[in-house]
């Protein structure tokens, strides 16, 4: 587990982080492509509501994740450990 005094992460750990980020980006891209494909197949090209809703969802999620990472950061793991040990 990461903590402030830990030595820099070794190479495979960073590969794991970046692979996860790339997979999340690919998943979000696939959702948008799936909505577009559905609209083309079923003739609902004029309706942009699903794209707008998904765009808003992704934007809000991204803002929340960035905000939590910059304000709380790794403190979440300490909070999680505290609650799991007290239960």
Features:
87 residues, single chain, 76% helix, mainly alpha
Could you give a short description of this structure?
α1 (about 10-40) runs antiparallel to α2 (about 50-70). The protein has one domain.
Helix run count: 3
Order of helices and strands: HHH
Residue ranges: pLDDT <50 for 5 or more in a row? none
* Record field, number of beta strands: 0
User: How many domain units?
Assistant: 1
Helices and strands: which structural class?
mainly alpha
| Main beta-sheet annotation | none
Mean pLDDT: 78
Shape: elongated
N-end to C-end Cα span: 21 Å
Q: Which percent bin holds the helix content?
A: over 70%
Task: Please indicate the percent range of residues in DSSP E strands (runs of 2 or more).
Answer: under 5%
- What gyration radius follows from the Cα positions, in whole Å? 19 Å
Oligomer: single chain
Account of the 3D structure:
The radius of gyration is 19 Å and the shape is elongated. The protein has one domain. It contains 3 helices and no strands. With 87 residues, it is mainly α. α1 packs antiparallel against α2.
Q: Layout of SSEs?
A:
Blueprint: H1 11-41, H2 49-71, H3 75-86
Helix pairs in contact: 1-2
